[in-house]
Predict the structure.
Amino acid sequence: DSGVTQTPKHLITATGQRVTLRCSPRSGDLSVYWYQQSLDQGLQFLIQYYNGEERAKGNILERFSAQQFPDLHSELNLSSLELGDSALYFCASSLGTGNSPLHFGNGTRLTVT
Amino acid sequence: AQTVTQSQPEMSVQEAETVTLSCTYDTSESDYYLFWYKQPPSRQMILVIRQEAYKQQNATENRFSVNFQKAAKSFSLKISDSQLGDAAMYFCAYRSPSTGTASKLTFGTGTRLQVTL
């Protein structure tokens, strides 16, 4: 158990809809990262927050947004969903320093129909 | 931008044998961190081993060890005494420390390891 909690585990929704994915980091971790993994693909970095502030942005679509709350949990909002957004979305957390590893949650499997 | 390349999409090893997974990376930085993550069929991402670039000694974790060649920008993973539970997708990842807290992991495309009896 990595200590990172992601909910829900599975999500099935229709095109055009909006969903929210939630992540609770490990106790003590200040940094939260979101990654997208499409079928049989590598992990694509979306965005990172550190102690409530956005710190790095990857190839995140404008239809996607995220935030980290004062209690350090994070939410990833996906709107105007398209079939191609179907993927496994991972949240990871770390202390935030360079050598501290990322600990991953079990992911949220999003299926857009 | 840093890139990570895993040139072996698939590898196969017999149980109890040794296998080496390759990883190369491109960077202009002198200090950085490298990681191997394992993703079994459950899709969970599990940290296998990590290496700091400033350390010359190769990292070892039980049956897992790395061969870190900084000049060649190579970071291979050796799995000894392979077990059925080692079957998974293995991802090599790079992390820069230079941006402080903005230090994301950049992943390679992965190598799928099969373990046969």
